[in-house]
């Protein structure tokens, strides 16, 4: 018997039994990436967290519709003040290409990284730029309901007006008076009535490439709007679960609630789930702090903070070894411990396949199974579930050593249980390049070859540089010169 | 010296020197798939053909912007009469899921198949449903210019009117009188003035899910419109090359020319390129003829027409062994010959890396190189280029046997040349699972295991069925149960 799934709802700050709107079905919306640079550690956690939820709901028998968006327009450099350039436009200007080329490039690399992490593709992956009409329709209805105002070709959400009727800040535990106290005053230049108002539609400056016509003039949608629009388009005006990183709670998700409520007259989301953040050696990860690590760097070891490469499954296992609502601190020591733990678990999976059954079991395996599912159903407590899996690993190794025995039916049950939890629910898989030592040696050798090739190129020794690339190609490694250096992958 | 690139322009029916609009840059638009079912043989050819073009242009030093669309709305079952259901809506109805889930599923599997075939991702991959506003704007301008008419919430292109000022049918070599003669008369029920008019905007029936508001009422764009709109949006009102399968010449590309010309007052495309079709054992491929082969079936051998599995690189090589404007006939014999040829070529690539240089060369390698590039520049004549590569293979094998010698500089040049042509331009790569024999054995064994597992499941022998899946997983093969049977892949 698997206990009922209970999830922590950020909105009520309590664990609640999951009761879907429609029996047997679950609708899930998760905020996806803004695709303007390589995916980094910060992308791994929410995507693995909600992949675990998607897999567990599916395992429990729900027919899940999982929607995860791609933000390809409207995300400004300064998220709170909504000023600066659009992140994608800025990158396009720097790379001297069309904004949609930036979007395509980084969307593709995000997908590739997610495949490496064995994160399942969502059922629908809508793009903000692909839903401009739908966003304009929601602005229309918010204007019609009196919760927005137009100014010089832009449309802003009227937070104060909304707060008179509803409660702005309920998700993040803020109230408007506090927000007012903590927000700088407008300098008189702004079009907004209040600095905490936010854009639904922004007038495009003449040099802005990503623009669409509207009844308010040429412009583009505000960043928060797409999620209200695309979640309700594909999941209905009310739906089950909305997930995202804790950093999105305010202002992004708060604005989503306000938009949906102002447009529909009621909230859309029944359960809000937020994963906690990742720190690196105890510090926040930020480009400005010099501790920014992309997923490619992690998988190849090419970052000065890393003592070695860590495989995608090591990263996945590491993230699953913490509960999603706890902070996780990345360090080489912690990752190496995960690598060893994962190896032990995967070795036990192999051992399990080779065990011979006995007449009777000498150990009881039912508790492990029950405890493991109890943990998973308790707000996805993966670290506790994994701890129970390791108790089973001890039994597996004892049976192999001959100090314990398992009957044929218990053995079959163990195999089925481990396969369900390790492969299907936790989404781990055996990795091509074998154990950790091999992995490390391989990636070290490739990095050395890349560096030798760079040297040969600098010396105009094209024969050597071509030779290195060709031989790597022949043994199954593909190299690509990019302006950020050489990328490589196993073919 | 590499000769100037010459390409056959369908519009002029002559080979023309490629002269880009902007020096050093090339804009390329290719019609992508309608994503409502698994990718099949018919998708392999255009994508490999224009991948070759993209790679060769890049090799020649052009900065290429390659745009390939995804059709996710508006493609009706009967393409010519524009009747029946929307292909995606129909599949959504059959699978009982949301149309965008159909789109996502088959778009993902198309991308996966293209990666297997080593087809590079385009720089921009726009979706029809993501460009509704832009399509409405083009309809506006065609209406304004007098080449379209509205009827009951739909808008149709007025072919007769257009033909008075321009020439409808010039690409496919038709003229309107012939078309009139060969088209059935309208039955009086149609909204169209003439049966050869085509829809720019279709009014949505009440049950139609994919719909957007417009000034003509709720509806969706006609199939032909997206390509006129997205090509000019991302490549400019005039651009270099438009590619696609020969079957798209009429009506699709003819309609594209008419739309762009009616809207802009001039044509957009400078070079039209069309790949020829694939037949199977001399017959057209069609579901109704029972000779329909998906790419997954080809790669796994799971189709009764196939004597074995053929690896993605075998398929790629087979397609490149014919000129893109010739028909290609698929047969087991022809594929097996390609498999052997590819193995011989890839073995020579390995041998080349191991050769020791001599003091002086005993053979002249310059002709091979020159002939190969001459062929590629002659309208992408890949079969002739490959024939010249095989002349080099003879030399490589002779040097290995000691009957010929190559100097260090000639050897370096050979390596660089083969790497450029085989890996970069033809886009071939060494495959994970080694030679063809191994490939065949592996895929046979996996298919057998899948069949045994199916049997175990039918007998409710879950232990055996789980065991097969687990052990495959452990050795690096991932299985997935789908409603069309079991899919497997190397992880």
Can you describe what's shown?
The structure is a homodimer. By secondary structure, chain A is of the alpha/beta class. Chain A has 3 domains: about 5-275, 3-Layer(aba) Sandwich (Rossmann fold), CATH 3.40.50; about 280-425, Four Helix Bundle (Hemerythrin (Met), subunit A); about 435-490, no CATH class. Helix content of chain A is about 45%, strand content about 15%. Chain A has 16 helices and 17 strands. The first copy, chain A, has helices at about 40-60, 85-95, 100-115, 130-145, 160-165, 175-180, 225-235, 250-265, 295-300, 310-320, 330-355, 365-375, 380-400, 410-425, 435-460, 460-475, and strands at about 5-10, 15, 25-30, 65-70, 75-80, 85, 150, 155, 200-205, 220, 240-245, 270-275, 280, 285, 330, 475-480, 485-490. Chain A has a 4-stranded parallel beta sheet with strand order 4-3-11-12, with helices on both faces. A 4-stranded antiparallel beta sheet of chain A has the order 7-8-9-10. Chain A has a 3-stranded mixed beta sheet with strand order 14-13-15. In chain A, α7 crosses α8 and α15 (about 435-460) packs antiparallel against α16 (about 460-475). Mean pLDDT of chain A is about 90; it is low at about 435-440.
